[in-house]
């Protein structure tokens, strides 16, 4: 187990910081939208269910979604661990380029959600991007309903499994960690660890309408665009360092007698 400690440490170090900013802005709104479509859809009278019942349903749907993602990620991680260095050699150059592209896309997406900036640049408003996201989710939902007609956890699990196949720079980075283990078991566990790290953020996103006051939700909506931009800039620094254009920023530390390093970029 000790030989895999650096991979798990990197996941818990940089991954935790990255997840907090990146997933709250990118996946949070998506999961919130998906959970909202499931609310009050289990039968007559569900809309009048108690606060606790609604909270339990929303949390259950988020966990089901995460379970589907975990299954997909585990399979991908096991394959990466099995392929080992060969997969890492393929993934490395890919992430160097993809990271820069995704960074630009994140900054652009954040700007689109800041209405004054979008108007000044004569770009589509945030509502246009929300509409596009809604159409995409609608297409996914229609296909999933053919397999699971009844709304609820089973639908959310299938959607999560499908969404796990979407490209994500954070997923690519963790997949590189999985490949570096050269172990199917630890490759799968590393990827499932990513799902575990994202769960608290997505649970909050899915239950926020019930646990937060309207003023807090409005504040969160105002912060998200800037969080997305920050995530994009951070990812840009990571990619620039990976390409050797700037120096890496890292913090050395010791854990269980082992000298380790957390790479910020």
Automatic annotation (TrEMBL):
What UniProt keywords are attached to this protein's entry?
Membrane, Transmembrane, Transmembrane helix
Q: Does the keyword Cell membrane apply?
A: no
Q: Which Pfam families match?
A: DsbD_2 (PF13386)
Domain Urease accessory protein UreH-like transmembrane: from-to ranges: 14-234
TM spans, by residue? Answer: 97-114, 156-176, 188-211, 223-246
The record's InterPro entries line, in alphabetical order, gives:
UreH-like_TM_dom (IPR039447)
Q: Report the domain of life of the source organism.
A: Bacteria
Coiled-coil features, chain-numbered ranges: none
What is this protein identified as? Sulfite exporter TauE/SafE family protein
Task: Write the lineage as a comma-separated list.
Answer: Bacteria, Deltaproteobacteria, Bradymonadales, Bradymonadaceae, Persicimonas
């Amino acid at each position: 187990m000790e030989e895999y400690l650096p991979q798990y440490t990197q996941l818990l170090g940089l991954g935790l910081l990255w997840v907090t900013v990146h997933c709250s802005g990118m996946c949070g709104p998506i999961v919130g939208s998906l959970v909202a479509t499931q609310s009050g859809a289990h039968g007559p009278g569900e809309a009048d269910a108690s606060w606790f019942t609604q909270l339990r349903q929303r949390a259950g749907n988020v966990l089901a979604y995460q379970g589907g993602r975990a299954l997909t990620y585990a399979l991908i991680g096991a394959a990466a661990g099995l392929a080992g260095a060969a997969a890492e050699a393929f993934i490395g150059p890919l992430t160097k380029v993809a990271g820069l592209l995704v960074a630009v896309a994140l900054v652009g997406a954040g700007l689109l959600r800041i209405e004054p900036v979008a108007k000044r640049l004569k770009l589509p408003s945030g509502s246009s991007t929300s509409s596009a996201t809604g159409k995409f989710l609608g297409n996914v939902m229609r296909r999933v309903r053919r397999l699971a007609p009844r709304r609820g956890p089973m639908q959310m699990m299938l959607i999560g499994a499908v969404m796990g196949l979407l490209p994500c720079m954070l997923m690519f980075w963790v997949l590189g960690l999985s490949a570096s283990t050269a172990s199917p078991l630890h490759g799968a566990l590393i990827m499932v660890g990513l799902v575990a790290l994202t769960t608290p953020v997505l649970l909050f996103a899915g239950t926020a309408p019930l646990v937060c006051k309207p003023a807090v939700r409005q504040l969160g909506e105002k912060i998200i665009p800037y969080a997305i931009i920050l995530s994009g800039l951070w990812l840009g620094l990571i990619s620039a360092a990976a390409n050797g254009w700037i120096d890496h920023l890292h913090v050395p530390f010791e854990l269980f007698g082992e000298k380790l390093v957390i790479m910020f970029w």
